[in-house]
Amino acid sequence: RNKYCSNSKQKTLQSDGYSCLRPKRAGVGALAQANFSAHGPESMGEREAPAAVAVEVSSGLEHDDDERTRDSKQWHEMSSAQQVDYVKTEVLLGITICFAQVPESVAFAFLANVAPPIAVHSAWVVGLICGIFGGRPGMINGATGAFAAIISTFIPKPEVAGKSGEGVELLFPSVMVAGVFMGCVWLIRGERFITLVPEAVMVGFRNGLAVVIGLAQLHPFHDKAGMELVAMLVIAVVALVTMEFVPRLPYRAARAVPSSLLAILASVAVEQALRASGYRTDTIGDVAQFTDASIYPVPFLADDKYDLSMLSVTGAWQTVAWNGVLLCLVGVIESLMTTEVVTDLVKTPGDPAAVIWSMGAANVVSGFFGGMGGNAMIGLSTINGLNGGRGRIAPIVTALCVMATVMGAYPALNLIPIAALVGIMIVVVLHTFSWESVPYVVSALLPGRSWRAAVRCGSFTPLPEDVDRYDAFIMLAVTVSTFKTNLVYAVCGGIILAALRFSWATSQHLAVYGSLRPDGSKVYAAHGELFFASAMRFHLWFKPDDDPINVELNLENEPDDHSAIVALEKLKALYAKRGKTLTVNFPGVTEAPPHVIASPRFGPVVAGFNEKGFIAPPAAAR
Description:
Helix content is 49%, strand content 8%. By secondary structure, it is an alpha+beta fold. The strands form 4 sheets. The chain has a 4-stranded mixed beta sheet with strand order 5-6-7-8, with helices on one face. Strand 7, helix 21 and strand 8 (581-585) form a beta-alpha-beta unit. Helix 2 (80-112) runs parallel beside helix 4 (145-151), helix 2 (80-112) crosses helix 15 (418-432) and helix 6 (199-216) runs parallel beside helix 18. The longest helix has 33 residues, at 80-112. It is elongated, with a radius of gyration of 29 Å. Residues 1-71 and 588-622 have low confidence and may be disordered.
């Protein structure tokens, strides 16, 4: 945040605990820099929104210093001028984001090995339902790269470019089942478990997703050679440069048109110039033409393009159920991550439970009408939030504009070169990948701080000196697993690695101290957590053969699991076998007075607990 808010005018929210609020809302000269990676380098202790797709949604808007106050107001609390300003900004944002979502959806269709109309219809169906009923106003939903990456694992590449791969009939019930599972997640309040996903796993998730999307952009260049290959590369570069760098020019005209639309227009112009010169490259119309037959969504059960006998093949419904689980998990994870990102941007509360159930309903409807489903879109949601989008209007307008585009302006979609989609998606990749994690991982591979400090560029040290090697390993493992297996397996594996590390580290913090009382009895005090990772060797802290008849054990915390209970019972049995008695006390059950324990390392320390809790020894004694 500190890097992002270098402008002193933006440092206005000290009372809120943030170093800045956000960039000025889009207006005269207001340039919102959208960070597709959404979180930035949280793992390094800060968030940064690097320059990315710059979008100006309006002109002639002036914003005063009470902008934050106005944003937090309800509709009925706004003045008439504020209401007009709010609606104008939201509507223009919705239209602008549509120009980015349409080509992204087509590109995600190619990634998922399905026909483009399947993804574009999913974009507006999912976006509209979640925009109206979702629990996070300001969040854009639709067909996503995460969904496409999962779908591509069970639908092979089509034999004819632009068509759907074999077995696409299993996709639609899989999406519907995923929606049902999302409803189950909502019923058990599963959204609260997103807190179990560590930052290192989130970084690996984004990096792996970027790698999967990036590798998929190589496919259109297969079997191309000569002038056609050169032309495709030129168009891809034109789209990339236009979308990424033109809005950074210090001219208002450079920001008068959304960069995504400008990139498409420039690419179409280059393609038409090539065709006038006798050369050509593939366009959407050449490989997957939008026609009158594809402009309306049709229930897949009534669509004669699909072979529904595939659903009666042995094992088909087991495949559908498992694919539904994978789609549900990846949708829930990415949507809850995006919810946190948008909440951080707009500074208003959201309802994660409503995010889940509305997404479930949207996927049931999308799957029924022959769509690939979808979830929250981190990149477009960040664009919306950074440009001042706060409510439901912008997401709804975006969905309606996508619907109008596919139903009314589809001939224009057929003119877009495939190479232009590649250029746009490379921009998405560049800003989805967390580049700050690269020096972090490199730094973790070096032997020590002196090696990291030795890597310098003048006075600048590019490598962080303080790194956690295990977290770096998790980032790398999740990234590699994502494109070697799939997103869900990678995230679950990362969570398991982080949980194992935490369990091991916590088990090492357990320590037991013992001391004799004046009456001849002995008291032990156990500091730390007694659970499965520390229970197996817990009895080694004690000396049943040497201890007196009466022994007391005071636990700092109540036993955490069955392993801890078994360890205590085993310890009691050891003393009972020798005709001795072990009394176990822990907070909330028995009160034990403070007493002095002779620590072999730190000398006398006080330990015990009463009705107010555990009286722990000093930190040094721990």
